[in-house]
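Q: A reviewer asked whether we had any structural model of the full assembly, not just the individual parts. We don't, so I'm hoping you can provide one. Inputs are below.
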Amino acid sequence: MTTKTPISVWFFTGVLIAFYGIVILGYGLYALGLPPSGRAMSGLHPDIWWGGVMLVVGAIYSVKFYPFNK
Amino acid sequence: MTSHLIVLAPVDLVIIGAYFVAVLVVGFYLKGRSSTGEDFFLAGREMTAWVAGLSFLSANLGSLELMGWAAAAYQYGILATHWYWIGAIPAMLFLGVVMMPFYYISKTHSVPGYLKLRYGESSRALASVCFAFMTVLMSGINMYAMALVLKVVLGWDISFSIWVSSITVAIYVALGGLRSAIFNEVLQFFLIWLGAMLIPILGLMETGGWGGLKARVLTAMGSGQYTHLWSGLGSFRDNPMGIHWTGIVLGLGWVISFGYWTTDFLVVQRVLSAKDLRSAKMAPIIGAAFKMMVPFIVILPGLLGLAVLPMKLTGETAALAAGGHSYNEVLPLMLAHYFGPGLMGLGITALIAGFMSGMAGNVSAFATVWTYDIYRAGIRKNASDAHYVSMGRWSTIGGVLISIGTAYLVMQFLSIMDYVQALFSFFIAPLLGTVMLGMLWKRTTPAGGFWGLLCGTVSSIGMWAWVKADPTALRYIALSGNAKDMAENMYRALWSWTICAVVTVAVSYCTKPKPESELKGLVYGCTEIPSEKDLSLFQRPIFWAVVVAVVLVALNIYFW
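A: Here is a predicted structure for the entire assembly that you could use as a starting point for your response.
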């Protein structure tokens, strides 16, 4: 796992957030086909847009701080 | 099987599992970059202002902090915000602008290390022994409290929670030292915000914004004081907390806050890792800017709980007796109110991340103080750097094991929790007097520093024991018969700091000061602080400190 190229903490952060975004967004899309959960504000489908926001933010960090560009 | 608040779906377990994998990957990756003492204990002193600043805040943003203050907001209303604003921001700015140059230029590796340079070995010994053991004991108490929450909320076995989380922390801190702790704290910072921020967003949508929330709280509680910061603090009787503005301003805003944020090595260590003096000054200012926003994810969910939860929460004892929910469960209840599978995993990960960042902060600070200020100072003075790094790794594991032992001890004897929390508070307020007088007044002598610290600490213990033996004594310490428990800590801190300062000054005038040549880099007036004239306005820490201070004042006026 060691490498001569220092990997930025922002890259680690970006990858994890992007992964979470994919999982939460994916589940939110899957849940569209399920019966309503009955939770407050669930009609707004927060998992879809929050997961989407996380995916975008995570992707930006991952690309911007990708350590092996050179 | 007892019932619990939340049932996790497989997708939630994937999210929680990914978090544990990520922190361990960071630890293993950084192992190869922590071979010297400077690397292991001070992260190579190469952190940027942003990394050091977010880590500085994250080390303090434990999950008990999140859940505890959300509970306090449910119980006392917006008054709990004082612990985040006046009770933190001025001290953080003061650390960045005034104190950081002395910590940084002196090249100390710890706060007890600074006391050694300024006052000598006796002050360092007193401070380091108190700090090291209180830190691991506090870590154990937090560990137990968090495991208890996971049991109540998720039904997880207490031993499982304690061992899995603490072994993970031990692995990544022992492998990568402070750098690994800091990297993970930055990661945890984002997870805490992403996991917690959606609650107030959805809550404000549900209640119709701040105005709608205030109206609902007024209806639920029958008092407007739950949404006002200052207007009810003119009298102990006019606010839910039973406190007076003098206690908030002088006890909390001055002594407790400055004591914690400027002398507690757990947080100061993060800033000492900065790559240069400007970054070291900027880090607490960046931390302060984010700290100012923390009430959005902590206090607001507590207030929203008052407005939208169908049940009434009570104290722990009443909740146990009636089978209801306690104040401490307000944050998990709000998670359950809004979050479905996926988001729930993120919310629980935020709580676990908060717990682990706090614990990593404790054990990395313990390892540094144990290795440099106790082991090297008193047990083995002239070993190699590699030996001390090895001792740092082992003491990290030792610190975690002591914490686990403390957690099990607390499980058997619950009252120990109160005692250890009190022990920690005994020391912080007098230490503020000792460090601040040492930094800002060159006449302070080594004997003055030591005796002030000792007398302040002993007087704090004395006042605590007095109130414990006779609860009516609180009227003398808080100077009011209407004072409630919350006021005791503040006035005790204020008195112990005052006693420390008076003794330090008195003894200093009776003893011989150090020559100025020995105070270079340690004391105001004897230290050449690098000029910032070449920096543009936007690069200067003082500019951003003023910006943060202005926003702080504006927020306090808005929520008056």
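A: Points you may want to mention in the reply: The radius of gyration of chain B is 23 Å. Chain B is about 75% helix and 0% strand.
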